[in-house]
Amino acid sequence: MHFGETIKYHRKENGWTLKELSERCGLSVAQLSKLENEKIQREYRQSAKAG
């Protein structure tokens, strides 16, 4: 299981929405969504290749 899948699994196990998890952890809903869908990691890799 990847990192994003783990976050999503535990969030759903606790019955939390992205908004509720956002309020608990201090990350924005958009950031959490990107983490769950593993877009942040891909964006980081792409920018590292470009740089």
Topology:
Elements: H1 3-13, H2 18-25, H3 29-36, H4 39-50
Helix content: over 70%
Which percent band covers the strand fraction? under 5%
Q: Using DSSP, what is the number of strands? A: 0
Biggest sheet statistics = none
Return the structural class: mainly alpha
Structure, explained:
The chain has one domain (3-50): 434 Repressor (Amino-terminal Domain) (Orthogonal Bundle), CATH 1.10.260. Helix content is 76%, strand content 0%. It is built from four helices and no strands. The chain has helices at 3-13, 18-25, 29-36, 39-50. The longest helix has 12 residues, at 39-50. The termini are far apart. The model has no long low-confidence stretch (mean pLDDT 86).
How would you briefly describe this protein structure?
This protein has 51 residues and is mostly helical. The chain has four helices and no strands.
Defining key terms:
single chain, 51 residues, mainly alpha, 434 Repressor (Amino-terminal Domain), 4 helices, 76% helix
